[in-house]
Amino acid sequence: EIVLTQSPATLSLSPGERATLSCRASQSVSRYLAWYQHKLGQAPRLLIYDASKRATGIPARISGSGSGTDFTLTISSLEPEDFAVYYCQQRSDWPLTFGGGTQVEIK
Amino acid sequence: QVQLQESGPGLVKPSETLSLTCTVSGASISSYYWTWIRQPPGKGLEWIGYVYHVGSPNYNPSLKSRVTMSVDTSRNEFSLKVTSVNAADTAVYYCARVGDYYGPWSYSPDLPFDHWGQGIPVTVSS
User: Fold this and answer.
1) Among A1, B5, B86, B96, which one is most buried in terms of CB atoms within 10 A?
2) In this complex, which of A46, A96, A98 lies closest to B114 when CB atoms are compared?
3) What mean pLDDT comes out for the span A59-66?
4) Which residues contact A71 (CB under 8 A, 6 or more apart)?
5) Ramachandran category for residue B110: left, alpha or beta (phi over 0 → left; psi -120 to 50 → alpha)
6) How do residues B38-94 score in pLDDT, each as one tens digit?
7) pLDDT surpassing 90 at residue A1
8) Are A86 and A105 in contact (CB under 8 A)?
9) Residues 6+ positions from B51 with CB-CB distance below 8 Å
10) What is the pLDDT of residue B101?
11) Contacts of A5 in chain B (CB under 8 A)
12) What confidence tens digit (pLDDT) does each residue in B11-39 have?
């Protein structure tokens, strides 16, 4: 199965700062990568699909890039509601797999 | 709006069967693929499988021998059964909808999940 490795595990930043999250795949997933935001006790929320397409209602400060094995989720200026755990997920091959997550915490 | 709600027992004994239901409102169960995902304590997300109202479900090979998914169109809900559970099956279980991003001719079960339930914690313990 395709293994997704996210880094860093934890990102400590202040509101207004730029967040850059990485997801690396064990083999090429083309552009078939999604990003989700997850807050404790809530349903995960889809942010980005197919590497760079924003899901419905996702603000422009959140963007995705990459292809092949290396992907990045960027939040250009952190808002208070952006502090959460972020997961990447590939749909290039079965079984579908997720990365281990990056927690974005308030510094 | 689309809402998904998981239900079922929060405690299951080892070797028994875990049974969960996901009730869908705001969308027809017959129009989409539906999936189950779980998150063990302190770990990441694990895709369990998907189901459609027709055809065969597709399961993660790591669980395939113990998992059954089905759809009840009359109730607009779908379900998950995991047999012979052990402590490693302790997790928060989520149901989710496979989203339709490119229109009906390009809809496929591998697309990302656009609506999720809140999750239901299940503990396997005697």
Assistant:
1) B96
2) A46
3) 97
4) A22, A23, A24, A25, A33, A51, A64, A65, A88
5) alpha
6) 999 999 999 999 999 999 999 999 999 999 999 999 999 999 999 999 999 999 999
7) yes
8) no
9) B33, B34, B35, B57, B69, B70, B71, B78
10) 84
11) none
12) 999 999 999 999 999 999 999 999 999 99
Give, for A88, the enclosing helix (H) or strand (E). Answer: strand A85-90
Closest chain B CA to residue A33: B112
* Owner of token pair 């996702």: A58
- Residues B92 and A102: their CA atoms lie apart, in Å, by 19
What is the number of CB-based contacts under 8 A between chain A and chain B?
A: 58
How many residues belong to chain A? 107
Query: Which residues on chain A are in Cβ contact (under 8 Å) with B101?
Result: 49-50, 53
Asked if the C-beta of B107 comes within 8 angstroms of chain A's C-beta atoms, the answer is no
Interface of A with B in 63-82 (CB under 8 A): none
